[in-house]
Each structure stands twice: as C-alpha cells, then as structure tokens.
Amino acid sequence: MKKIIFAVLFFLPAFCFGAFEQQFWQFYKEISPASGDITKFVLDSDVFASANENMSDLRIISHKGREVPYKLSVSRDTEATAFVPVKITNNSYAEDKTASAVIETEAGSVVNRLHVITDSENFQRTAKVYGSTDGKNWSVILDNGYVYDYTDQKGGFHSQGTELSFPDSTFRYLKVEIVGDISGSIKITGIEVAKFTKEAAREVERTPVFSVSENKAKRESSIIIDLGQRGIPVNKIVLDSTPDYGVVYDNYNRVVTIYSGNAKDSWTYVGNDYVYRYRTSFISSEKLTLQFPETTDRYLKVVVQNKDDVPVHFTSVKTFATYREILFQSVTGETYKLYYGSKNAKAPEYDFETYLQYLDVSKAQTVTLGAEKKNDTFGVVPAPVIPKSEKNPYLLPVGLGISAIILLLLIWRFLKK
What we know:
This protein has 417 residues and is mainly β. The protein is built from four helices and 29 strands. The two termini are 13 Å apart.
C-alpha cells in the first residue's frame, strides 16, 4: 500500500494569495529606521491629502517586499460616570429669585459633578455649590459656576448646559444656588450627582488661515476657514475674540451654524452650536469651542447670527482632530515604506490587531515619515507572466506520460496479485 503514495496526481489545488502590487499605489514615504519590536508613527498631512478617506489604502512594505501587518489607532475620549443616590430637600427660591436646593448623598460618596434638571428656557445664570458634613455649616466648593439654556423654537435650535463640576468632594450634604434676575427664577425639577472621570483623547492642533465677512442684510457674520487641502480631518473649532468697541461688546451669546465643502461656493451642513462670553463684575465665563461630526473637506464655514447686535470680532481660529497613529511590529535590520494613494484598495485584515493587546504598546518606539515621493512604477502595466508550460512545452506531455506509466504499474501489480 505504501507504493500508492507514489501515485500522486498532478491535479493539485492552487491557492492564490493576495499580494501587494506596487504599480497600483501612487505615493510612498520612507519610514525612519526602527530597531525592532512595536513601532509607531503619526500620519501627516500628505497622507491625509492623498490617501483614501477611510485610510483603506495604507500599506507598509519592507525592503524585502514583505507586506507588514499594522493597526491604525484612533484616539478616543474615555469617560465614566458613576451616579450616586440622592435625596433632594428645600427646593425653593428666595425673594431675589435665587433658586436653591439641598442634596443629601450616601455616606462615603466621592462626587465631583452636579447636574441640574430644569425645563426653564432661555437663561444664563451664575451658580454656586456648597458642601457640609452636617447640613448646617456650609463651605464653598464652587463659586463661579455657570448654567445656561438657549432655545429657539422658531429655528428649531436648543442648547443647554446645566452641569456644574468641582473638585472631588466627600461632603455628605451639597447645596446648589442659582442666582436669579429680573426675568425670574429657574425651576429646578431634579438633580443628579455623580463621580465623573475622563481621559481626554489626544488631539492634533492646527492654526489655519481664515477670513471674516459680514452680511448686514442677513444680520450675520461668516468665518471661512481654509485648511490648505482636502483630507485633513477636523471635528472641533476653537474661536477667540477681542472687543472692538469697548468692554460692553465683549459680552455676547450667539447661535452658530457650521458648514464644510471643497469649494467656497458649495457647502454642506455640518451642525449647529452656541458661543458666548461674559465679562462682568458678577461672572467671567465663556464657551468658544464648537464640536461637530468629523469632516475632511478643505473649507469650513462658521455662520454667526448677529441679529441686531454688533458683530463679534473673532481674532483667532484653531482646529482640532483626534490623534491617529500606525502601530506595527518591526524587525531589526529591515527598512520600511508606507504606500498610499490607491483609490480601489480595500482595507486590509491582519491577525496583528487581535494579538496586539498581548504586546507591550507602552514601550513602542516612535519613528517618523519622510518626504512624500511618487511611485515611479505607478500605472505601469507589468509584463505578462508566461506560464512554465509555455516556456517549456515538453513539460506537460512528459508529466502526463510519467503519470500514465505509474498508473499502469499500479494496475499491473494489482492484477498480478
């Protein structure tokens, strides 16, 4: 029976493995030398500009032609909120319209955030938070808090900020006071107390070119931001302003609408937000950060609704995006290139992502990307591969003849028995 092993047929399964074909990639960057183990680098503006929007065409190739598995890591905020049970008492307001409430927490609780629940609309108020161990003697733990609500029923816009944050507190009792004004007191319908922790995502900051124009007919101002090229991810804008007409005009609250586009005459709606700044003897507070879904268009437009007020003089614009880096396992002695710019390339799937969690990423070495270079072989059709059967036409007949002889010998041995 052992001789049957020699009856190997030439119909063997042929497997076709996916291979990196350099002629389909338009650009590459050399990666600075690595000394082995986990290696990482940050994607730059060149890559964002020429790679696919979802980065599906990124490939790391060693000098030996080996495709190197990698993981694209996108930084994310890590947040945790642990609510504690509370009992609310003395929910009332004074003659000066200051609303207040006392909150009793569980003994031993550590908290740092208080959320005022209210259905009141269109207000901006200062707030204070006190702490007490016995509910009688109070200490200030937040004296410059600020809560607001902006509701435009006609425009369908609503923005509210009624969370008050303060240093970690172990006080058994808390008291919140929200200062009233001539428009009346806000109605506190509930209060949530929690311990909030947050590890902010790493961000890439840019200072782009921008221009500001006013449309008096529409009673609005427009800030046009030019990122210099398409492909740069952005999900946050931070504005700053300086008063042009005296301190009084450094107090404002305006609705803004955000658009993006790759041409200054064609815009896509991104989102709405709200900016304000108050500089008075009673309060010093501001919100000049706009957050929205990430876009990779070249231009951003922020439309500020002035109504009948003097336009805000915006003097600074910064944009931000979440941090993106590539991690891969390098080999000492090998050099690497990052290829990109292949429109039809699909995102690769590697085992590396599943076992990366078992590697010590904290000790990853940081390398850098070199200048962008054009791939000289891009678009060049490789010479057709001539099968060996055509180069050597006698191979197939000889192979068939040998196989036939082996089969005849096996049949003869069988019949002889």
